[in-house]
Design a protein that fits this description.
This is Gfo/Idh/MocA family oxidoreductase. Pfam families: GFO_IDH_MocA, GFO_IDH_MocA_C3. By secondary structure, the protein is α/β, with parallel strands linked by helices. The protein has 12 helices and 15 strands. Strands 14-13-12-11-7-10-9-8-15 form a 9-stranded mixed beta sheet. The chain has a 6-stranded parallel beta sheet with strand order 3-2-1-4-5-6, sandwiched between helices.
Length: 396
């Protein structure tokens, strides 16, 4: 008896869509039901490569291909439209990051999913947060959850290793515009960073953001952001991100009462206190002395499977067998988007915003920016049809 397969359609055949196409082609338990892109030549090319049918409208793909699930890899604003159409038809969804551009759209997606589950209880909604599979981040999560650090007091994450050239921004007419993309680094590169922050530490109670528009590039959206978070447990967080620095930095410091965990340059180190720093501070009679700290290098198995294929495999296994956990459930996309929208709303309003944020205020501001945009894109820079996207993916 031949192995049972899941039928998956792919909509969106740009840079990230090509990555999904390659993965689907390699999976023995997947039948590619169809591929879809507005650019007919592109859809035809990938259909031939994957031995499937080309579609030029996502509704035709949903209605005519006989698919069980769809992977959404289109520009961000179209995520909700296609996801809602799929849920209405009882079709499983795996969506590229971010879940949506603004929270009101994300909540519409989640509500549609929950309503669809009343008729289709086994319906699945997954997000492509592949950085959750990276060995170093998984190890950090296990250490944080184990309680080894004790009460957390501060997290500082400098992640400026997202360098993008002007040629990158010129490569698509939708990139780095309020109307086409809905934002800059927080919407495109850093949904992974924002998801990782909330996955590890939760969503903060308040957000203070400072976003710089087109500081390093000729664009109308943010390419450098500094944010400050306050959590209900007293922990504070700092986030510094940009697409303008080279060489960039990816350094995460997690401070707890029992020591400091530092992740940088492929090395995870625990600077371990002999006793709680809070206890020591309250009980010592010394005014200036510091505790002796043990430096412990944490071993991480970097050969563990990771990346997009792991997320897709988990999704397919869930669909075929009804077992196993998704790497990221669609509902979890609300957390990362809360950070992104909250940072920008704070920056626009020049004040700290409480969480949950005013989603209506952010959407109204976004509509204002779209309506008032007079930005004229330069002619796209010619490039090969199939970009090597591996260079854009995180390595921790």
């Amino acid at each position: 008896m031949s192995e049972r397969k899941i039928s998956i359609g792919l909509v969106g055949l740009g840079n990230i869509g090509s990555t999904h196409a390659k993965i689907l082609k390699e999976m023995d338990n997947v039948h590619v039901a169809g591929v879809c892109d507005l650019v007919q030549e592109k859809a035809d090319t990938y259909a031939k490569e994957l031995n499937t049918q080309a579609y030029y409208n996502y509704k035709d793909l949903l209605e005519q291909s006989g698919l069980d699930a769809i992977i959404i890899a289109v520009p961000h604003y179209d995520h909700p439209t296609i996801a809602l159409a799929a849920f209405e038809r009882g079709i499983h969804v795996m969506c590229e990051k971010p879940i949506a551009v603004h929270l009101n759209d994300a909540k519409r997606m989640v509500d549609a999913y929950e309503n669809a589950r009343k008729l289709h209880p086994d319906l699945q909604f997954a997000l492509m947060f592949q950085e959750r599979t990276l060995p170093f981040y998984r190890k950090v999560k296990s250490i944080v959850e184990s309680g080894q650090l004790g009460k957390l007091t501060r997290v500082t994450w400098i992640n400026t290793a997202w360098f993008r050239s002007q040629a990158y921004y010129n490569s698509g007419d939708w990139r780095a515009t309020w109307a086409g993309e809905g934002g800059g680094i927080l919407t495109n590169q850093c949904p992974h960073t924002l998801d990782m922050y909330q996955w590890l530490f939760g969503v903060p109670a308040s957000i203070t953001g400072h976003a710089h528009i087109g500081k390093y590039h000729d664009i109308e959206v943010e390419d450098e952001v500094t944010a400050y978070f306050e959590h209900t447990n007293g922990m504070i967080g700092h986030l510094i991100v940009t697409t303008g620095e080279s060489p960039g930095t990816n350094r995460m410091e997690i401070i707890g009462e029992h020591g400091k965990l530092v992740l940088e340059e492929g090395e995870l180190v625990f600077y371990k206190n002999p006793i709680s720093m809070l206890k020591y501070s309250n009980e010592t009679d010394q005014k200036f002395s510091k505790m002796e700290v043990e430096r412990v290098e944490i071993t991480v198995d970097i050969n563990e499977p990771s990346g997009h294929k792991v997320v897709t495999t988990k999704f397919v296994d869930r669909l075929l067998n009804g077992t196993g956990e998704l790497i990221a459930n669609g509902i979890e996309g609300i957390g990362a988007l809360t950070l992104a929208n909250g940072i920008m709303l704070s920056s626009f309003q020049k004040q700290t915003v409480a969480v949950p944020i005013d989603a209506n205020a952010f959407e109204a501001k976004l509509k204002e920016l779209i309506a008032g945009s007079r930005f004229v894109k330069k002619a796209p820079v010619a490039s090969a049809d199939k970009e090597d996207m591996s260079k854009s993916f995180g390595s921790h």
